[in-house]
Design brief:
The complex is a heterodimer of chains A (about 325) and B (about 325). Chain A has about 325 residues and is α/β, with parallel strands linked by helices. Chain A has a five-stranded parallel β-sheet, sandwiched between helices. A two-stranded antiparallel sheet of chain A has the order 4-5. Chain A is globular, with a radius of gyration of 19 Å. The termini of chain A are far apart. With about 325 residues, chain B is α/β, with parallel strands linked by helices. Chain B contains twelve helices and 14 strands. In chain B, helix 1 runs parallel beside helix 7 and helix 3 runs parallel beside helix 4. Chain B is globular and about 65 Å long. The interface between A and B is large, with 46 and 41 residues.
Chain lengths: ~325, ~325
């Protein structure tokens, strides 16, 4: 674990990590009970990536995400209740129940949405970066993608265009080891940092189980983008604590693999220990955050379970700006 | 007001809107031309010269040449639109949507709905289409029905320079994504076009000609062929109505149905494939909305369901003609 920078608000960072984890741990239980419609892809294990990135972002900065977006949504400041309601397909959800888990978004917070076509959102991030540059603003756009997305042409085209237009964009590759059932060790030829480096984009490996490593390396990219230095690329290795989707029997994984990841690469236990060791937080304060996060997550899920579905009249609205 | 080609009319619309609205920029392959090259800048102004001269007026900040990366620059346009800009993206030939269709199908068309009305993507995508130029199977298609099939986007299909200027201006001011189809044969076709800006509302068909015997619904460049057919038929004493829908999403079904019902006979002229195309759509409209008015079977005038051939002899046989349209009208009267 790296040394925690003095300016990092330890309790705030821990609160974010814990909220993401608690929400999904409890959601996992609700899904297992059959209470959640459709398909959900849990982010648990990858929290340090979303939190470590979003600690540097303002609401006016833009984040473009993937199908595995609950963590990005919350880390970017999205409302917990709106997230839960959306995942349950209920009225008042972040997308009015029209998007679901795979499309959660909070446009007022610069969270431009989960996008469930692998790699499709990467060019939208460079579009957001283009708009900042066009207007002479200092905003940055962050594109999150997985190792699966890293093999899509949209990503390569976007890195090339972002570089030649010198756009303020961060490409964050969250490599959780799997594109559905297919191992990234097999499917990704060469090294992601060398691929991005081939475009002349500054690229760095990041330990996604170490919040501080994410936080400090992303800081460099955000500063580069805000100062007109163009795009950066980050290969963040993260553990995946659940399957590709909820209900995935995970037969492609090694026996004991997840248990080992949870024991050795849990970003929350690591950050907690580092914070206590460094004297930046005491256990009681962190315990209080744990309890509060659990209570908030439980309340949001219960509220969503009991909420009404959208009215049927919503079926045909929002197709165009005007009916 | 003066006689202007469709190329000039489109350029006027772009210039006026870029001068009026700082948020508008244009982006595409060789849209100026010569980026990074040692020779002339603004070398092409687009492959058909439509945007020639805009670089000199607006500079590289707002006239942006791109690498051949349709997914990236169309996606960039979508993102910029989401951020509140008004991009006009050029996809050089409609055929090239094959490499970036996901950005249309799953992204620009879906954002407003799947994000619960919180996202807005006011992007205009200009593209050229149409056969008759020896460009063969990958540069000649008329794929507009594929786009009309997708809820969430609008599709404009002007048949003349006047409509092109008004519809493109409307597209750039629209809050929703618009695909704007420019037939290659129309670039040099000229008519009276006002100098000032004007908007032609989407979803309002034009009644190009009125006659009692048969209604011809024609799309895009096919409207010109229908007009030629109407002249031939008039000499025979056959009077036709011609409807130009101008936009196919939204489609002005009321005007079309009224015209079909008034004539009792229908010919549909579409340069797209006959399968699941606009000809089929209008035939279905007649069958569902005014079946009792029909005095004869509906006639579809379309190319055959084959890829577009290169040889001039084969390409000529592929395309609908005024003669074929006139023959179809006569069949409805037998």
């Amino acid at each position: 674990m790296s040394t925690i920078p003095a300016e990092l608000d330890v309790l705030h960072a821990y609160r974010m990590l814990r909220l993401l984890r608690e929400f999904e741990d409890q959601l996992h239980v609700a899904i297992a009970r059959g209470n959640v419609p459709g398909f959900t892809h849990l982010y648990a294990g990858e929290e340090a990536s979303a939190v470590g990135v979003c600690l540097h972002l303002a609401d006016s900065d833009v984040l473009c995400s993937t199908h595995r977006a609950h963590g990005h949504f919350l880390a970017k400041g999205g409302d917990l209740d709106a997230l839960a309601l959306e995942i349950f397909g209920k009225e008042g959800g972040a997308c009015g129940g029209k998007g679901g888990s795979m499309h959660v978004a909070d446009w007022s917070r610069g969270m431009w949405g989960a996008n469930a076509i692998i790699g499709a959102s990467v060019p939208h991030a460079i579009g957001a970066g283009f708009a900042f540059q066009y207007r002479g603003e200092r905003g940055v756009a962050v594109s999150f993608g997985g190792d699966g997305a890293s093999n899509q042409g949209a990503g390569f085209e976007s890195m090339n265009l972002a570089k030649i237009l010198n756009l303020p964009v961060l490409f964050v590759l969250e490599d959780n080891g799997y594109a559905e059932t297919t191992a990234s060790g097999w499917s990704v030829a060469g090294k992601p940092v060398e691929r991005a480096g081939g475009f002349g984009i500054p690229s760095v490996e990041v330990d996604g189980s170490d919040l501080v490593d994410v936080y400090t390396k992303i800081a460099v990219g955000v500063q580069r983008a805000r100062n007109g230095g163009g795009p950066s690329f980050f290969h963040v290795r993260v553990p995946l604590f659940h399957g590709h989707y909820e209900g995935d029997p995970e037969t492609y994984r090694a026996p004991g693999e997840v248990r080992q990841l949870r024991a050795e690469r849990d970003c929350i236990t690591q950050f907690r220990a580092a914070a206590i060791t460094a004297g930046r937080a005491d256990a009681a304060a962190l315990d209080a955050i744990d309890a509060d996060s659990a209570a908030r997550a439980a309340a949001a899920i219960e509220r969503a379970q009991n909420a009404p579905f959208p009215p049927i009249s919503a079926l045909t609205t929002d197709v165009y700006a005007r009916p | 007001m003066s006689i202007k080609s469709t190329r000039e009319a489109i350029k006027e619309a772009l210039i006026a809107e870029m001068e009026r609205d700082e948020r508008v920029f244009i982006i595409g392959e060789d849209i100026a031309g010569g980026m990074g090259a040692p020779g002339e800048q603004d070398a092409w102004g687009g492959v058909f010269g439509v945007t020639k001269g805009l670089l000199g007026r607006f500079g590289r900040r707002r006239v942006i040449d791109t690498p051949i990366s349709e997914t990236a620059f169309l996606g960039l346009g979508i993102g910029a639109a989401n951020a509140g800009l008004r991009p006009v993206v050029e996809i050089m030939f409609v055929d090239f949507f094959g490499v970036c269709f996901d950005q249309v199908l799953n992204n620009m068309a879906k954002f407003r709905y799947m994000y619960g009305g919180k996202a807005s993507t006011p992007i205009t995508v200009r593209t050229s289409y149409g056969a008759g130029f020896g460009a063969a199977a990958q540069h000649s298609q008329a794929l507009y029905p594929m786009f009309a099939h997708i809820p969430g986007i609008k599709v404009a299909l002007p048949s003349n320079a006047y409509d092109a200027k008004g519809l493109l201006t409307a597209a750039m001011r629209d809050e929703d994504p618009v695909i704007f189809f420019e037939h290659k044969a129309l670039y040099d076709a000229a008519c009276e076009v006002p100098d000032e800006s004007y908007v032609l509302p989407f979803g309002e068909a034009a009644v190009v000609r009125e006659g009692k015997d048969c209604c011809i619904v024609a799309f895009g460049h096919m409207v010109q062929l229908a007009q030629q057919a109407a002249v031939i038929l008039a000499r025979e004493g056959i009077e036709t109505t011609i409807i130009d829908p101008r936009t196919i999403a939204p489609l002005d079904t009321a005007t079309i149905v009224d015209a079909i019902a008034a004539c009792g006979r229908l010919v549909v002229v579409d340069e797209a494939s006959p399968v699941c195309g606009m000809a089929s759509e209008i035939a279905a409209l007649a069958a569902t909305e005014c079946p009792r008015a029909l005095k004869a079977p509906v006639q579809k005038v379309t190319p055959p369901a084959v890829p577009i051939p290169f040889s001039p002899a084969l390409e000529a046989a592929y395309l609908p003609t005024a003669k074929a349209i006139a023959a179809a009208v006569r069949r409805t009267l037998q």
